[in-house]
């Protein structure tokens, strides 16, 4: 065996082991231990002082995140899920119970995850202050996405597969990270403002969407979002150009904190009405924007068992439902779709890979042999029906499998072509004593019967009674060794072949 062939065998074996262990990655828990890196700083930004004293009263703060990775993972490019907590832009922390739990669950699935802090602070009696609070958080989300893409290699993540999950205020961030992507969409209150009641100072221009943080050449938007009980400033922000980014909207229809439809957050008349998940869904449908929803009739805010992100007192029956919907939604974003066609020429099958989003492949031909080629050609050694399968793997090693039964025909070693008809040949020698050879050919796979009868129609011997594949066959009839251990006299006999609709009889003569 040459060195090249030897290396290919080793490589194929390596891929087979790796792929066989990862077909359930991202859909079931693959890792028991999670490695945590706490308080990784992604940028420094001016945050309003607490207690609130005005829009110009700020202090530069480190904005950080806790990062979770599956311990012992060897995959070099993984999707990442970033979680943003709730709290009405006035309170909250990245250690909220629900955000920590999402981070740990998805790290065990095989994701890199994080729960991140963003800038807080606003005057709830001023809609302009609220606009500015949301805008600062949007800037922070964009700064974090650029930071993650800049550090993708060290984090072992794919820059093309970074997703945001946000709860309440965090859902505002997730949604606006997608739909507010032009400077022309900035709210008026985010520019420089004069004194406005009851604030006694002026407010500075908050700058462009990407004014906070570095790495300006990196992308600032997520590749998919999960918005838990969120809303947008106006559905006019939702445009068809945004439709390449998948969304999952989760909301209770009786939410009094962030209304499901049109209404002011917290039911405060000082805050402008926002457009909740119901109206976002309607706008997305009108744009033929592919998205998913989970709306629960009669349920309120944070309906899976938390109060402002903390267990109250523990997760309820909706927690697993929501977590599983998030799992399936994210998996469907990055998973490939396995698909193939094939053409058969006798024992040789040419496979054509038509998968979507696949970058690596593992073929199982159903006969114990495999291949990692994109479009392999495989030769089967025996006729039969084989369960061939293709497992396609994405860049992040999410997998999808397509199976198909393939019937192949291997010709007799002495035959170049398969029979075009079923036929029974004259035995040779004839007359014979004590044995003769009977040849026949079968055009299609079928149950075959070949029997010998005497001149009165009595069965003398059964030479063949089994299922046969197409091919050329021969059998020896020995008059001395019969099934029924009896001697037969010289004379005229007949042999009959039955196969599907074929029925033929020929004469043979035993001469002692």
Secondary-structure blueprint of this entry?
Layout: H1 3-22, E1 34-48, E2 58-70, E3 78-84, H2 97-109, E4 112-116, H3 127-150, H4 152-155, E5 157-167, H5 169-179, E6 225-228, E7 231-232, E8 247-252, E9 262-263, E10 274-276, H6 277-286, E11 292-296, E12 306-307, E13 310-311, H7 317-334, E14 340-345, E15 348-353, E16 360-364, E17 370-371, E18 377-379, E19 384-393, E20 399-408, E21 423-424, E22 435-442, E23 446-454, E24 459-468, E25 471-478, E26 491-499, E27 502-510
Parallel strand pairs: 3-4, 3-5, 5-6, 6-8, 8-11
Antiparallel strand pairs: 1-2, 2-4, 7-10, 9-10, 12-13, 14-15, 15-18, 16-17, 16-19, 19-20, 21-22, 22-25, 23-24, 23-26, 26-27
Helix pairs in contact: 3-5
Describe this structure in words.
With 512 residues, this protein is of the alpha+beta class. The chain folds into three domains: 1-26 and 336-410, Immunoglobulins (Immunoglobulin-like), CATH 2.60.40.10; 34-334, Alpha/Beta hydrolase fold, catalytic domain (Rossmann fold, 3-Layer(aba) Sandwich); 423-510, Immunoglobulin-like, CATH 2.60.40. The protein is built from seven helices and 27 strands. It has helices at residues 3-22, 97-109, 127-150, 152-155, 169-179, 277-286, 317-334, and strands at residues 34-48, 58-70, 78-84, 112-116, 157-167, 225-228, 231-232, 247-252, 262-263, 274-276, 292-296, 306-307, 310-311, 340-345, 348-353, 360-364, 370-371, 377-379, 384-393, 399-408, 423-424, 435-442, 446-454, 459-468, 471-478, 491-499, 502-510. The strands form seven sheets. An eight-stranded mixed β-sheet has the order 1-2-4-3-5-6-8-11, sandwiched between helices. It has a four-stranded antiparallel β-sheet with strand order 17-16-19-20, covered by helices on one side. α3 (127-150) packs across α5 (169-179). It is rod-shaped.
């Amino acid at each position: 065996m040459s060195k090249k062939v030897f290396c290919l065998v080793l490589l194929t074996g390596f891929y087979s082991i790796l792929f066989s262990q990862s077909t359930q990655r991202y859909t079931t828990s693959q890792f028991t231990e999670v490695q945590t890196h706490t308080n990784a700083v992604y940028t420094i930004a001016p945050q309003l002082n607490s207690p609130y004293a005005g829009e110009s009263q700020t202090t530069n703060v480190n904005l950080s995140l806790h990062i979770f990775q599956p311990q012992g993972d060897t995959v070099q490019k993984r999707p990442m899920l970033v979680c943003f907590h709730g709290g009405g832009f006035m309170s909250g922390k990245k250690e909220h119970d629900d955000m920590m739990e999402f981070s740990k669950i998805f790290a065990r699935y095989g994701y890199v995850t994080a729960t991140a802090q963003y800038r807080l602070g606003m005057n709830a009696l001023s809609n302009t202050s609220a606009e500015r609070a949301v805008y600062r958080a949007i800037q922070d989300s964009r700064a974090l996405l650029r930071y993650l893409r800049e550090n993708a290699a060290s984090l072992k993540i794919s820059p093309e597969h970074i997703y945001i999950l946000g709860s309440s205020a965090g859902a505002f961030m997730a949604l606006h990270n997608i739909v507010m992507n032009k400077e022309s969409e900035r709210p008026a209150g985010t520019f420089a403002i004069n004194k406005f009641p009851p604030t006694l100072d002026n407010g500075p221009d908050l700058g462009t969407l990407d004014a906070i943080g570095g790495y300006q050449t990196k992308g600032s938007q997520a590749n998919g979002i999960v918005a838990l009980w969120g809303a947008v400033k106006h559905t006019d922000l939702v445009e068809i150009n945004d439709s390449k980014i998948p969304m999952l909207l989760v909301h209770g229809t009786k939410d009094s904190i962030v209304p499901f439809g049109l209404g002011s957050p917290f039911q405060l008349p000082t805050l402008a009405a926002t457009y909740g998940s119901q109206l976002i869904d309607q706008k997305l449908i009108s744009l033929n924007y592919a998205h998913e929803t989970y709306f629960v009739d009669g349920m309120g805010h944070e309906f899976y068992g938390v109060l402002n992100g903390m267990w109250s007192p523990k997760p309820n029956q909706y927690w697993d439902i929501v977590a599983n919907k998030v799992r399936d939604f994210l998996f469907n974003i990055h998973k490939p779709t396995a698909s193939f066609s094939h053409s058969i020429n006798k024992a040789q099958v040419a496979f054509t890979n038509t998968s979507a989003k696949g970058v690596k492949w593992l073929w199982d031909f159903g006969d114990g042999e495999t291949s990692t080629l994109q479009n392999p050609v495989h030769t089967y050694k025996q006729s039969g029906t084989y369960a061939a399968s293709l497992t396609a793997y994405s860049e992040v090693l999410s997998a999808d499998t397509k199976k198909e039964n393939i019937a192949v025909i291997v010709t007799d070693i002495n035959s170049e072509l398969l029979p075009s008809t079923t036929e029974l040949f004259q035995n040779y020698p004839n007359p014979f004593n004590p044995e003769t050879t009977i040849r026949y050919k079968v055009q299609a796979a079928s149950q075959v019967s070949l029997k010998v009868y005497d001149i009165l129609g009595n069965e003398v011997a059964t030479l063949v009674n089994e299922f046969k594949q197409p091919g050329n066959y021969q059998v020896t009839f020995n008059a001395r060794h019969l099934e029924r251990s009896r001697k037969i006299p010289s004379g005229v006999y007949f042999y009959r072949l039955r196969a599907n609709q074929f029925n033929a009889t020929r004469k043979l003569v035993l001469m002692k």
